Amino acid sequence: MQTSDDLFFLIKHLDKAEKRHFKLQAGLQKGDKDYLKLFDAMDALPWTPSENGTSSPYDERLLKKKLGGKISTTQLHVTKNYLYAQILKSLRSLYEEATTEMKLAVLLSEVKILEQKGLYEQVTKKLTTAKSLALKFEKYSALLELLYFETILCARHKTQDVEAEVSILYEAIFKSLELQTLEIRYKSLQNKATALYRNGTWARDTASKEKLHILETEPLLHPESRPATFLSKVSFHFIKATLSQVTGDRHQAISHYKDLQAVWTGYPHFKEEYPSNYIIYSSNYLVCCHLVRDYSLFPALLDDLEKVPLRNYDEKAEAFQNIWYLRQLYFMNRQLFDIKGDLPSEAKKLVKEIQNGLVKYAPRIVKSRQLSFYHNTAVMFFALGEYNEAMEWLVKIQQTTKTDQRKDLQLFARLLQLIIFTEKGEHLHIDNAFKAFEYHLKKEDKRHDFEGIVTANLKQIASRREDRRKSFTKFQEELSAFEPDKIQGYEEISIWVESKLKNTTFLEVLRARAGASS
User: Fold this and answer.
1) How far apart are the C-alpha atoms of 192 and 307, rounded to whole Å?
2) Of 165, 207, 237, 362, which is least surrounded by CB within 10 A?
3) CB of 359 within 8 A of CB of 50?
4) Alpha-carbon distance 423 to 385, whole Å?
């Protein structure tokens, strides 16, 4: 039994093609259809999604008003359930050929129907087609089901060499299970490596170091390990790249990403089969290039990613949160320097596109990426001297639902707020902000870490007890004791301090550094 909310949100997430297909299917049935009246009434209800995943609620009273008594109150609940089932049925028929998994599901269904009809020759042909497809795309779950079904058919209908043929089929089942298990093990390791990276501690604390050591000594990740399937090869190289990023060895990470790109090149049909995966891994490659200030691959690879065929909302959402993230990075670190006009206006145009995507794809946006969009936008406006705009995005980070992902960005948002208060000389806010942040550092036992040193220096600068140049010189000297590659926000703070010592803008220092590294 579905709730009214389920039906409402299903209808609101249908695109034009899906609605048209549903109406065409419904039109094949003769007579007056209450469920179509309900569909039109629900489709007409107002709905305003937001970037935090919430949206305007379903209003039952407004629905009944729009229906105008066309469906009796006693029949409304039954009609809702029927409509929900019909929409899903329509979507199944529309997308039954959309992915290999769906094609295999249809083939398996047809195999069973033909077997029930006693058409065993046709069953064999269908099984051969299905197994060939499953092997081509390494769909071991489907292959296992097909092979097991074939053992049953063989035992029932074969009259010669039954034992030998069944034995061969079971050998194929065991091999498929072995390969599937290997993929699952690699995927489990990949999830652990990704979690370690997303935690944002960069292996600075004891718990993260222990997790890193366990992964680095895992036999499946040994350099001589030879993953046997496409997905296990992808996971192997991605894990190695991720662990290199966690340890701060970005050039080694890039080397692993190059190996990963070579895997995709060697299996071209998988790019179409797994478009989201290809976009994700290629995006991570470019992000790593960004971290070493190498933007040479950005134009060509971004162009390639934008041409990847996308089949549904989920894939379009994945493309958005990766491609637009990269577009923003490229804008901030390259295109920004070539703009001759109003920089803040150009930045706001970019941010507007990002905001629209965050709203449109809110249910699908990964929390860590949402925080990254907020962080990059805040830093971009800070670099342009648009402090009020920057502060709005920093507040978004703080207001984001409590999460363990990207704690580094959450922590840096607090630091950047302190810098903005210092820049603006807002002493009324800065005292409370310092107290709150110092309490947070004490609770997290980070008073003597990078964040604690930065806070102490900012407090000294804000107090105006010493000559500002002397304070910033001391700040710069203390920053030099840390490893830049392992600390989120180090570069932004370092650029800001340098801009004060050189009496220039943040953007000019960023431009000079970008020129020096290109």
Assistant:
1) 31
2) 207
3) yes
4) 10
Pairwise CA distance, residues 93 & 425, whole Å: 63
φ, ψ of residue 55 to 5 degrees: the values are -155, 170
- Would the pTM of this model clear 0.70, i.e. be above it? yes
* Tokens encoding 62: 């407004």
Report residue 108 as tokens: 């398996």
- Shortest CA distance to 501 belongs to which of 465, 457, 463? 457
**What local confidence, expressed as pLDDT, does residue 3 receive?**
64
Start-to-end CA distance of the chain, whole Å, equals 60
Q: Which of 203-212, 309-318, 330-339 ranks highest by mean pLDDT? A: 309-318
- Quote the CA–CA distance of 373 and 384 in Å, as a whole number: 17
**CB neighbour list of residue 346: distance below 8 Å, 6 or more residues apart:** 336, 339
Please enumerate in sequence order all residues whose Cβ is within 8 A of that of 513, keeping only pairs 6 or more positions apart, or say none.
Answer: 293, 495
Q: Is the pLDDT of residue 1 over 60?
A: no
Residue 431: partners with Cβ closer than 8 Å, 6 or more residues away: none
What residues contact 180, with CB distance under 8 A and at least 6 apart? 140, 141, 144
Residues 504 and 251: their CA atoms lie apart, in Å, by 31
Pull the structure tokens for residue 475: 């700040």
Asked whether 377 and 339 are in contact (CB, 8 A), the reply is no
Cβ neighbours of residue 404 closer than 8 Å, sequence gap 6 or more:
199
Beta bridge partners of 58: none
d(CA 415, CA 113): 64
For residue 249, what is the DSSP state?
Answer: -
What distance in Å separates the CA atoms of residue 445 and residue 22, rounded to the nearest whole number?
Answer: 58
Q: Give pLDDT, residue 505.
A: 93
Q: Is the pLDDT of residue 418 over 50?
A: yes
Residue type, 510: L
Helix axes 100-116, 120-136, angle to 10 degrees: 160
What number of residues does the chain have? 518
49 DSSP β-pair partners: 55
Distance CA(268)–CA(375), nearest Å, equals: 35
Among 462, 456, 396, 455, smallest CA distance to 424 is for 462
If you ran DSSP here, which 8-state letter would residue 62 be given? H
Residue 469 CB-density burial (10 A; 0-12 exposed, 13-18 middle, 19+ buried): exposed
Cβ 301 vs Cβ 259: under 8 Å? no
What pLDDT, in 10s, does the model give residues 335-351?
888 887 788 899 999 99
Please say whether the beta carbons of 198 and 368 come within 8 A. yes
